Amino acid sequence: MTFVDTLERRQLRELTQTFMAKEVLPHLDDWERAGEVPRELHATAARIGLLGIGFPEKVGGSGGDLLDSVAVTEEIIRSGGSSGLVAALFTHGIALPHLVTASDRATGDAGTGTTPAAGTDLVERYVRPTLAGTMIGALAITEPGGGSDVAGLRTTARRDGDHYVVNGAKAYITSGYRADFVTVAVRTGGPGADGISLLVIEKGMPGFTVGRRMEKLGWHCSDTAELSFVDVRVPVANRVGEENTGFLSIMQNFAAERVSLATQAYATAQRCVELARGWCQDRETFGRPLTSRQLVRHRLAEMHTRAESVRAYVLDVATRVAAGEPAMTEIAMAKNAAVDACAEVVDAALQLHGGFGCMRDAEVERHYRDQRILSIGGGTTEIMNEIIAKGMGL
């Protein structure tokens, strides 16, 4: 057994497989058409300990580290789930880490006798209920017309006594339609990265409007929404960490998100290899199974090689990140390599399925749609290339 494939992680994979077979697969097609997963699924996943994987027990999580989260993500997709399902059920993976980190820092400050950071009760109000499956959280950074320019965001938060007055808009927010609260990136200071903070804004606060449910190419079971803020008064106590430190927090948490997206990509590729292999073994043309033809066998071999190779690299990078090594460039390379391999393998898998691959009844059709967002979410391919170039000294 390697560091990645421990006995405990094998048991975690088995738990995930059981969860998928019993609670997800019989309903996933219906959720795809409904445009969301039910809130009850969060509670079920929390009850068996899956929802809190990767979060410390002291904040209501199940413990474990990044590699445990990777194991769950991989198994969800390889068991017949999808990256859209991961996005819908585990949105808290990008909504909560900022709150947990701020709480840790505040506790450390208090222990040294200095003034603790604002928001030390955010764990009790938002983190624990979310990990218990009774609340849903989202992260709101992207703005209409803003794209990848995080440092240029325009949503403002003006200090007014014990409150901030927030004005602006966010777009393409995963789980934004169902979320009970949103961790929102706002501008509390001057222009650029140094003027950004994070605020927790609850649904129902006057002036906070959740717009239409946005229809997408893929991730159909993951709801996406536009958010609007018009003179929303948010208590200063809802600030995550110190004022104007939000950009650094966002950048730090991008690492885990990008590793997750890379995992979703290689796992989707692996799943599509299995789907294509099964189809080609069963499908007969001109009296023979498709796998009797060298061209098909070699195509499947190439697909399998790409999926397994990129998995090995992503897991190597994930292991280094879990050990605390700085690996920003390697994470960017892993994400780009994984999503590129995924796109090629899924496309080939659909081609091998022929006309059936284009039907909604074909699982490969869902993966074909879902994989496209992986090169955009968490930092586009172009942004990753810029990070890689900087790592090369260019």
Automatic annotation (TrEMBL):
Cofactor annotation: FAD
Record has Flavoprotein as a keyword: yes
Gene3D superfamilies assigned to the protein according to its UniProt record, in alphabetical order: Acyl-CoA dehydrogenase/oxidase, N-terminal domain (1.10.540.10), Butyryl-CoA Dehydrogenase, subunit A, domain 2 (2.40.110.10), Butyryl-CoA Dehydrogenase, subunit A, domain 3 (1.20.140.10)
Matches recorded under InterPro entries: Acyl-CoA_DH_CS, Acyl-CoA_Oxase/DH_mid-dom, Acyl-CoA_Oxase/DH_mid-dom_sf, AcylCo_DH-like_C, AcylCo_DH/oxidase_C, AcylCoA_DH/ox_N, AcylCoA_DH/ox_N_sf, AcylCoA_DH/oxidase_NM_dom_sf
Pfam families referenced in this protein's UniProt entry, alphabetically: Acyl-CoA_dh_1, Acyl-CoA_dh_M, Acyl-CoA_dh_N
Keywords: FAD, Flavoprotein, Oxidoreductase
Residue stretches making up the Acyl-CoA dehydrogenase/oxidase C-terminal domain: 244-392
Superkingdom of the organism of origin: Bacteria
Domain Acyl-CoA dehydrogenase/oxidase N-terminal: from-to ranges: 8-97
GO molecular function: acyl-CoA dehydrogenase activity; flavin adenine dinucleotide binding
Domain Acyl-CoA oxidase/dehydrogenase middle: 138-232
Presence of keyword Magnesium: no
Family classification: Belongs to the acyl-CoA dehydrogenase family.
Protein's name according to its UniProt entry: Acyl-CoA dehydrogenase
Organism name: Salinispora arenicola
